[in-house]
Design brief:
Blueprint: H1 5-11, H2 18-21, H3 26-35, H4 40-47, E1 52-53, H5 54-60, H6 66-78, E2 82-87, E3 93-98, H7 100-103, H8 106-119, E4 127-128, E5 131-132
Antiparallel strand pairs: 1-3, 2-3, 4-5
């Protein structure tokens, strides 16, 4: 007896009733499925300032590995939010820029930034592994 995809998902507890699914907005689910991944928001935020070379982007997002940055940029490219551009060398350099769809996220990200300022506890300026920087300026 063959088991179809729906039966397989039901066996894993991943199928929901139509009533349960209608409680979650499909657009919100899709947006957070992409933008809710770790590092994606900061990457898009940096790219809002204009085209950025890969190495500069990595430096601008503290803590991200090259592999994770590459993976997130690939996902954003597949979603149509980022374009990869190769600058013929020497040296060969790769930069990334937002598409018009990616740039259209700016107002939403600004609203989220303002919300965070008003409602999330402040962790202070860039906090490293040893806690906040307390050295004199």
């Amino acid at each position: 007896m063959a088991i179809d995809g729906v039966q397989r998902e039901a066996a894993r507890g991943q199928v929901h009733s139509p009533a349960a699914c209608s409680q979650v907005d499909d657009g919100i689910t899709r947006v957070f499925g992409l933008l809710g991944k770790r590092w994606t928001g900061p990457i898009v935020s940096v790219l809002l300032n204009g085209p950025t070379y890969f190495a500069d982007l990595r430096r601008a997002v503290p803590g991200i590995s090259e592999r994770m940055l590459s993976d997130r940029l690939t996902e954003l490219g597949i979603a149509g939010l980022v374009v990869r551009e190769v600058d013929e060398g020497p040296p060969l350099r790769v930069s990334y820029r937002l598409t018009s769809a990616g740039a259209a996220l700016e107002p939403a990200l600004e609203e989220l930034r303002q919300w965070a300022e008003a409602h999330l506890p402040d962790k202070g300026p860039c906090v490293g592994p040893d806690g906040p920087d307390t050295s004199p300026n």
